[in-house]
Design a protein that fits this description.
The protein has 2 domains: about 140 residues, HUPs (Rossmann fold, 3-Layer(aba) Sandwich); about 120 residues, HUPs (Rossmann fold, 3-Layer(aba) Sandwich), CATH 3.40.50.620. Helices cover about 40% and strands about 25% of the residues. The protein contains 9 helices and 12 strands. Helix 1 runs parallel beside helix 3. The protein is globular and about 65 Å long.
């Protein structure tokens, strides 16, 4: 199934998503021939009642100011997205919601469950709760975008698959198939001497499967050599000028806090490139 309906999540608070993220998302949708919906939320900042009663500061005034900041950011981001999408000539729509700050992750998950793919920007300045919620709660693939400026414009050139013979990795490949079929080059990277790879089948068998879909791949093996898996994959993507990394997401939720696997935690905390996660 092709990616025909993509969602882009935009954060209005505490800091707005940079305009460069919308431009990247538009380029991705154009490369995939997909409709793109941008979702922004005006948040209602809530403060516990006991905090209000015990403070001499003008808390209601501060809250009103923060809400106005969020409202303006949400509308400005959607306007900038509209300009970028019109310039690229893609089918698109704007969605403006209103909700409390604590309800934003659930709102994003609800929308993501109705899309083929969700693009979630990841800021450097605070935690990745929104991305984690969508990855593990939507049941759909999630493309994580770094908010930091890209060294070059996005293009669907080289896509790399992080392959460890696991269920999550196999699910990620299936979910990413529309992207793999459109990529100029596909590479499969297996990291050795990092953990036991529990499979009797080699990466060559996976390459044979993808070849039946018309996808020719390059097979790579990289020795971890004592490095963490996230570090190994980041170095690999840089040296091979990878445009998108495809990998399974490992983790589970415990009292609404996600306990992440090593590679997932490392690459999600500061993604060096667009990463398609699937759980």
């Amino acid at each position: 199934m092709a990616f025909k309906d993509i969602l882009l999540t935009l954060t209005s608070y505490p800091d707005p998503t940079p305009a460069s993220v919308a431009e990247d998302a538009v380029a991705i949708a154009a490369a995939l021939g997909a409709h793109l919906a941008a979702l922004a939320c005006e948040v209602h900042v809530e403060v516990p009642g006991h905090f209000l009663s015990g403070s001499t500061a003008n808390i209601p005034g501060i809250i009103a100011g923060e809400m106005e900041k969020s409202r303006k950011s949400a509308r400005d981001m959607l306007a900038a997205f509209d300009v970028a999408a019109n310039k690229a000539g893609i089918l698109h729509e704007n969605i403006l919601e209103r909700c409390a700050t604590f309800a934003v992750p659930d709102l994003l998950v609800d929308y993501a469950r109705l899309r083929d793919l969700t693009i979630v920007p990841v800021p450097e300045s605070y935690d990745q709760w929104y991305a984690e919620a969508v990855i593990f709660g939507s049941g759909r693939p999630t493309l994580v975008l770094p908010e930091s400026p890209r060294p070059r414009p996005f293009e669907l050139g080289t896509v790399a698959i992080a392959w460890d013979f696991s269920r999550a990795a196999a699910r990620a490949i299936s979910d990413a198939m529309p992207m793999l079929e459109k990529a100029s080059k596909v590479r499969i990277v297996t990291v050795t001497n990092e953990k036991k790879l529990d499979s009797k089948h080699s990466a060559e068998a996976l390459a044979k499967n993808l070849a039946r879909h018309g996808i020719d791949v390059v097979l790579d093996k990289v020795d971890a050599d004592g490095r963490r898996i996230g570090e190994v994959l980041e170095s690999y993507t840089v040296s091979h000028r990878v445009d998108v990394l495809v990998m399974g997401a490992y983790g589970h939720s415990r009292l609404r806090e996600f306990i992440l696997g090593g590679a997932t935690k490392s690459l999600l905390s500061k993604p060096p490139l667009p990463i398609l996660f699937s759980h």
